[in-house]
Each structure stands twice: as structure tokens, then as C-alpha cells.
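User: Before I run my own analysis I want an independent prediction to cross-check against. Here's the chain; please return only the C-alpha cells and, at the end, one sentence I can use as a sanity check.
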Amino acid sequence: MYGDSVAGSVGSFTAADLGLDANTSSSSAAESDRGLTLSDPVLGNLVLDDNRLRYSVLEGRFAVCRLAPDAAIPEWASGVHFLSITRTANELSIVCEQEFVPAAIHAESDWACLQLQGPFPFEMTGVLAAILNPLAAAEVGIFAVSTFDTDYVLVKADRLQAAKDALHNAGHERTG
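Assistant: C-alpha cells:
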């Protein structure tokens, strides 16, 4: 089974592409009625049935904030559920729970946050495309953040149901 590739709308890859070795006992592949499930102690379970993914919706509402590129990271930049801080030559962006953001800060509020169930190997292509394409077709705007292990997709809270419907119709599974 490991010699077979898994193909779908996201791309084509083999178990070797995912860093799994058919000759080790720590990795295994099994057919199920949902497709090929690859198991690895580091990667966990990735369900690769036509590249359908699992996601959850984080608690709370989030804000995307823009500060000057040379601004110090403010004390209010914290979070229980999600926090992302990115500095570029042009800005300091902070994504956090909106309740922590002072009113004077330039921010876009009322975002809901979808967490894709990772981790995803760096070699795996098309993860975001599998999620973003159905959202684009449903005219749901997004703000994406990637981490070492996974991806987060923020959608406006008033479009959350449309996002969940689009992802469900594309075959993705909500786990929480």
C-alpha cells in the first residue's frame, strides 16, 4: 500500500513524501471505508480520503491588529486560545482574542478561528488550498496563519456558518 500514491484535489503524494517508512513498525497504513489513514507517532493520524481534512473551531472571537513595524510587543498581546505575532519591515501584526485589544489599536475584529488538525509535514502540498478553495467558492473571506505544526484560518464571525457549510460540503470534518 505504501507504494501507491494518494491523489486528489490537493495534490499527489506517497507515504514516503510524508516521511513515513514502510519498513518501520512505527508507521502503518490501513484502508478504511473513508480512505487511506496513515499513522505515525509524530504525525498522528492523517485521513487522506480525497484529501479531506479535519478542523475545529476555537472558542472566542479574535482581532487582527496592525502596529508600527518598530513597535514593542505590547503587554496586552496575549491569549488563551490563540496568539500570533508577526513582524515585517512594514508592520507588526498581532492576532489575539479581541477582548484583550485596547480600543485605540488599529484592528479588524470579530473573527472566528478554524484550526486544521495537524501536524502536516512540510512536504505536503495543498493543505490550505483544500480549505480555501471551498471557502472562496462560498465567498467567505479569510485570514490565514501557519505554524510549525498546522494552519489556522480565520473567517468573519458572521460568515462562520457559511464557512462550516462550505467545508462540510467539500467533505471536511469538524471535530470540535
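Sanity check: The CA atoms of residues 53 and 61 lie 23 Å apart.
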